[in-house]
Amino acid sequence: MRPAALAFLALAMSTDAFAAAIGKGAGTARPGLSNALRTGLLFGTIEGITPIIGWGLGMAAAQMIAQWDHWIAFVLLTGLGAHMIYAGMTQNDDPSPSSRQPLGMLMLTALATSIDALVIGISLAFFDVNITLAALAIGVTTMVMVTTGMMLGNVVGQRAEIAGGVLLMALGSAILYEHLYAPMSLQAFL
Q: Where would you find the membrane-spanning parts of this chain (predicted)?
């Protein structure tokens, strides 16, 4: 895999986590760099592990997962997006003093945004790709994007949580549309 293709892939895999992080940062009173880094590390680790899991599944499970990945991503991202919109609309102007997000919600969000990386890992099993390098690039890029998103979301304000929710719902819908009506070949980028 060419370095430009790997960089594009890593960036593409981290954009949904970035959108979620903006919403999380907006809903957190002063997340602080250490909290943003912890969140980024959690998302980056999960996003880096899922392509390896997908790669390990390889050809045997490719058809089964490819048939359902878009529905799983759509339901999870739309549900999380709706929750973020609800939370953004029901919060008062003074966010709670808590600076930490519940670990369970962060992990669920990280898993929901990494389903596409799992499927990419399955796709990468069909090509001559160093999966360790690809997973590391995806994980590190996601960590940086999520950390940045957490800090940016807090600066933008808590209403950005509504925008983050809308972005997640749009992302889930785009994934569903892409898989149902406009399938894209990974071969073009390799």
A: 35-56, 68-86, 106-127, 134-156, 162-182
